[in-house]
Design goal:
It is a single chain. The protein is α/β, with parallel strands linked by helices. It is built from ten helices and 16 strands. It has helices spanning 26-32, 38-44, 56-60, 81-90, 127-137, 159-174, 199-209, 274-277, 311-321, 342-357, and strands spanning 48-52, 95-101, 141-146, 181-184, 214-217, 223-224, 239-241, 283-285, 288-293, 326-331, 362-370, 375-393, 401-410, 413-420, 427-446, 451-458. The strands form three sheets. Strands 5-4-3-2-1-10-9-6 form an eight-stranded parallel sheet, sandwiched between helices. A six-stranded antiparallel sheet has the order 11-16-12-15-13-14, with no helix packed on it. The protein has a two-stranded antiparallel ribbon with strand order 7-8. The longest helix has 16 residues, at 159-174.
């Protein structure tokens, strides 16, 4: 250790007092035994993708339909899907999720289950097929949104509807190539029929037909972050009580499985601390997805043109989601002219440049692995101006780090520039540029031995 450093800065770390928490125990082993699936690991490496809300509401200028629309009301005749995907890809997104059927029940594909579909509209072609094919051409992942609530289908609210829904889901998962995510929305109108969806049957169809797909929100693989404003928690855990996997598909005040005292919801601030986990027998790897729209509302409308978020706003959301152990599903709704509106496209281009700037000037990018000391040192080849640091745990071994400090060294002295809690798949740290010739990452608290995938410093 450099003698210029006061030893008490670093003597308290995961190897010594671990902030007063157990480092290794049967309970800690229970936490770190919860691991991501292969599909969840794959998604963590592609954390930024797009929602495409497009359909009947685009043509009618509504957010939610009425249930009384006709296929002829979808009056859009041309779409430029190549422009959609090129715009999204240039921003750094790796995939899209298309609203194949929203709550109004209008289907964007050549479904055999209902005449209320795009083939019977003035457009007259299969939009799901067009988007899926363009994803293949542009090397982007394709995902589907299928609303369980259906205001148009007469069988809704009866057991026959589950058959109808499963038939539609089967069509989407067999006729359009690989699907990376299936997004089930739990939203219902206040006057919707009280009806129980056959979720287990839906999941079985996805697992059978698209085994590489994650099932999101009303599903067991990806959880809703708890809001639609792009906000995240100070500590976003991926290991959480299993009851959260049902949080979006049960009635609002339902408290079951573990009793009312232990109930947790997607909007709680603490979902995965030791205090929370200790009260739950069943735990799951259930990472958060941040879904937020680039503009007010989810579907395009002219009134929304003045509400498009700035590149700075979106960049903050990116840092607080992708940079905080979440994935980011950014909604970019194509317009009624069949293109991504010019203002949205211009903002996305600026956002892409901001994201790229994070990685443009690397100082050092190092693989780390299992820690053998209380901290990790990084020596630079010369004095550099560091302003971005990106830390990743190797989440194949679960999420372990619970508290850490980052120090930069100049003239032989270390100064703390950041204190954080969890890391998970990715923690992006930004601060005003600081001259330094070395850095030290100190792990204060961990669930067993920390295992880091990489630590990267950028100017």
């Amino acid at each position: 250790m450099n003698m210029a450093i006061k030893s008490n800065k670093f003597e308290k770390n995961w190897m010594t007092d671990n902030n007063g928490y157990e480092l290794n125990s049967e309970e800690v082993n229970r936490y770190i035994s919860v691991l991501p699936s292969t599909n969840q690991l794959r998604l963590a490496n592609k954390p930024f993708y797009a929602f495409l809300h497009f359909g009947m509401n685009t043509a009618t200028g509504r957010e939610w339909g009425t249930g009384s629309e006709r296929a002829a009301d979808f009056t859009i005749k041309k779409i430029n899907v190549s422009q959609w995907l090129k715009t999204l890809k240039e921003c750094g997104m790796t995939g899209v999720i298309l609203t194949c059927k929203h709550h109004d029940g209008f289907c964007l594909w050549d479904t055999k289950q209902t005449d209320f579909n795009v083939m019977n509209s003035p457009f007259g072609d299969d939009i799901v097929r067009i988007v899926a094919a363009e994803c293949i051409r542009q090397n982007m992942d394709f995902g589907v949104y299928l609303s369980p609530w259906d205001m148009h289908e007469k069988s809704y609210g009866t057991p026959a509807y589950n058959d109808y829904f499963c038939a539609q889901l089967t069509e989407l998962l067999t006729n359009y190539g690989d699907v990376f995510e299936v997004w089930f929305d739990g939203a219902k109108g206040a006057n919707a029929v009280d009806f129980e969806y056959d979720w287990d049957r839906y999941y079985d169809i996805v697992r059978t037909l698209q085994p590489k797909a994650n099932i999101a929100i009303c599903g067991p693989d990806i959880r809703w972050v708890g809001n639609e404003g792009g906000k995240t928690r100070k500590s976003e855990y991926s290991v959480v009580p299993s009851m959260l996997c049902d949080a979006e598909k049960v009635s609002k005040n339902s408290q079951h499985t573990e009793g009312a005292f232990n109930a947790v919801t997607s909007k709680d601030e603490d979902l995965g601390s030791r205090d929370v986990l200790s009260h739950h027998s069943f735990l799951s790897w259930y990472p958060a997805e941040v879904d937020v729209s680039i503009r007010k509302g989810w579907f395009y409308s002219k009134e929304g043109d003045s509400t498009v978020k700035s590149a700075d706003e979106l960049f903050d959301i990116y840092l607080n989601s992708v940079g905080n152990n979440c994935t980011l599903l950014l909604n970019v709704p194509p317009s009624d002219k069949g293109v991504i509106y010019r203002k949205d496209a211009a903002v996305l281009k600026k956002l892409g440049k901001k994201i790229m700037s994070l990685y443009e000037k690397p100082v050092t990018v190092q693989k780390v692995g299992e820690l053998r000391e209380g901290w990790v040192d990084f020596n630079f080849d010369s004095e550099r101006k560091v302003k971005n640091v990106i830390i990743s745990e190797d989440i194949a071994y679960s999420q372990r780090v619970e508290a850490f400090d980052l120090y930069l060294r100049k003239n032989g002295k270390y100064k703390k520039v950041y204190s954080g809690t969890v890391i998970g798949s990715r923690s992006i740290i930004r601060f005003s540029a600081k001259k330094c010739d070395a850095a030290r990452l100190l792990i204060r608290q961990s669930r067993s031995t920390p295992i880091l995938k990489s630590v990267a410093f950028y100017e």
